[in-house]
Amino acid sequence: VWLDGNTLTYETKVAWEDFADEDNTAGKEGLGFNFCIVWSIGEGQDYVHIQLAEGCTGNGKHAENFAQVTLGPAQEAAAAPAADAAPAADAAASGEVKIEKPEELEYPTFNPLENSGEGFPTNSDPSKTEPESPEVEAAALKAAAESIGKNALTGVYSFVDASAGYNEQEGGASLWDGAVRTKWAGNEMPFVNIAQLDGKYKFDGIIMATANDTASYDRNPMEWAVYGSNDGQTWDPICYGDDSFFELTNLTYYAGSFDPTEQGYELVCFYSDIGGVSGFQISELVMTGEKVGEAGLNVNKDEANKWADLIEFTPGDPIANNGASYEDEAAAVASIGGTSINGNIVNYSVGDDKGKTPGFAGEEAEKLWDSDNTTKYCSTYVPETSIIEMDDTYGLNGIVMSTANDNSSNPGRNPSNWAILGSNDLENWTVLVNGNDTFFEDVDYTYYAASFDMTGGYKYFAFENMSTQSGTFQLAEVVLCGAKAEAAVAEAPALPGFETADEAVASIGKTAIAGYTFVEGTNGNGGEGPENLWDGDTATKFCTGEFPISSTAELDGFYTIDGIVMATANDNAEYNGRLPSAWTVSGSADGENWTVIASGDESFFAEANFRYFAGDASSDAIKFVKFDAEGASSGCFQISELVLTGAKADAPAAAATYPASGAEGNLINGTVIGNAEGWGGNAAAGAAAAFDGNVATFFDPLGVGDGFCGIDAGEAYILDKVVILSRYVDSDWNARFKGAMIQGSNDGENWTTLWTSDTVGTAPEYYTVTEFENNTGYSQFRYFNETEHGDVAEVEFYGTAVGTADAALDNKAEAPNTFDFGVVAAVAAVISLGGFAVSKKKH
């Protein structure tokens, strides 16, 4: 649109084929070029004319029809009639909100959004019209999000309404389905598409993908915008762009960022009033941002495919064909001694669109049942489903299916995970027979057959396929063989897993561990962070699209682990693909050194809501647990709970690297005593840290004079020396060494001071004490400070057992050199594995 003086000109490019007449039905001259309709309104320009677009020669055929049209005189517009009052009472009673797509939205005055500078293809071959693999597609989306430093919001959209697509296969739902091989394509302007998210989100970026044939047909929108709403009536502009956001490439993601929205939205609307030169299409739209609240609208969504989309099945052993192939249906049916019941079908699409999933124009689901293998059901929708209704209840004992017209030239389109299911209520479905693509060959117009034991009777039958090798599905015919039968008794499907954590724990014969304190984790969506894994409540969850995923918790003591229980969240059944695709659970005694105690993938769970699943695990004594996962197939991860099973255990003995100083002498071995936890309740800073041989860890008391670290030797020793290393790795804490005391006790209650520091520490060098007071023999020794905070990295006690010392004194005159400290030290190279007794008593 442009203004020249007093003349306003509006130009619309229209594909030639939209105007092709009988002279141009076979691709003659002019086909493929564009008309340019120019409306000029102003002084002396009150007319409309049509001209050929740039690049065409001549005026085309029937140019005499391209007449100027003189406009009539201006008239005052009639007042719009008052709108009827909305039926508020009815809406309130139903609790549902009907969202109407806006007929027109005003573009915001933002500058056009720029992409991140590159596209992210889903196939390494740019000429291909299918993504290379689900893994490559997921990696491309992840790379697009990373290019703008944002969190892609995947798996959170429910389609509400959209402008019509070219056909049902290319309808508006495809924009939000997480698959670039489907697309939203149409010619009904404006192009409007609305989705509801599973909560309120603040947005800070957008990712969109071109479609399967954009390189051949310029269909990227020339101008577009995205809006947010929380009521479906008021739409706030979020971002604006034009065709410079994309390139003419196939199946490629492009990403752009903007300032975060000031509020969260649960409705998002894409709007464009002008497509590309050859039409309009986009394959995917993914917003970026963070969840800031829960959804508040009960939106009355488009219910197309309601029943079809709800059918799920777990495949059993795949059936094989009878070893032959046939050119016609009758021969195939006769080969298994069957009787076709397709003539008793009374409804080829139950509930109209509710009983089928989309197919390409002229290749819809009904074609499966028309006894004509020159027609076919062809689709890229997942799953491909068709539900039929019979005139009575029938049992099945055979099946015949036929390939389509071009399987030989387009291999990989045969169904690779299919089933025939029966139902009498359209809610509970029973798998009657299932198979894979080995049932067929990649040949054209060919029937295959198989027989099986007669089933119970069903009023409704469904064909469903979950996948193909190529990503495109096609099948020409399905022929059901059987006879009338008594209606099968419907069995409510058994829910996977367990309803409660107690049931899950009991299923593996274990004892649940109850006390968890969250320590740290990676980011989650708003209110759906990593801390929710440990709160014992499946109503909360850890949900995120930011990978990798991690969440760490501290147990209320040391435990040996023998099992693990995890739970799905509130909407895993509705939003499949959020379960972790590869996960580990690790345990640690100190919060730093980790050992994997259990691992798995999404097969540990099922796509069900609020269900617990249990499995085995194994560990030595641990005090910390960590959950890690690389991602989820949908790009969005969620689970609600993690529970360990096991038994209380003694704290592990100090590490075998102790002592670390390299000092010579008889190391006093024993059990670590003192504070189980250090400053801030941190178990990694408890007494054990002073005896682990790791100079980077340290005992950190609860406060000045509040806590100690020591060794219970189990028998009395006279000290020879004490080797001490102040805390220093994270900062210079040598000042806290002043006032430190070495004390001895024989009962753990009454302590005698043997030495007091009157200087600061020498870290990173060790400080050695060799002169003591009251050194008469004690079974327990501790490091304690009541004037400074008292941090210490390592403490090593060296001495002589009281009995050995007495014997040495008795024999000193006869054998002054018989006591070999080096040999004793070598024998006692590590602290005893006898246990780790921790006292929380403060002195």
Please describe what this structure looks like:
By secondary structure, the chain is mainly β. It folds into 5 domains: 69 residues, no CATH class; 200 residues, Galactose-binding domain-like (Jelly Rolls), CATH 2.60.120; 179 residues, Galactose-binding domain-like (Jelly Rolls), CATH 2.60.120; 148 residues, Galactose-binding domain-like (Jelly Rolls, Sandwich), CATH 2.60.120.260; 157 residues, Jelly Rolls, CATH 2.60.120. 7% of the residues lie in helices and 33% in strands. The chain has 7 helices and 40 strands. The strands form 8 sheets. Strands 6, 7, 9, 10, 11, 12, 13 and 15 form an 8-stranded antiparallel beta sheet that branches. Strands 16, 18, 19, 20, 21, 22 and 24 form a 7-stranded antiparallel beta sheet that branches. Strands 25, 27, 28, 29, 30, 31 and 33 form a 7-stranded antiparallel beta sheet that branches. The radius of gyration is 37 Å and the shape is elongated. The chain starts with a strand and ends in a 16-residue tail after the last helix.
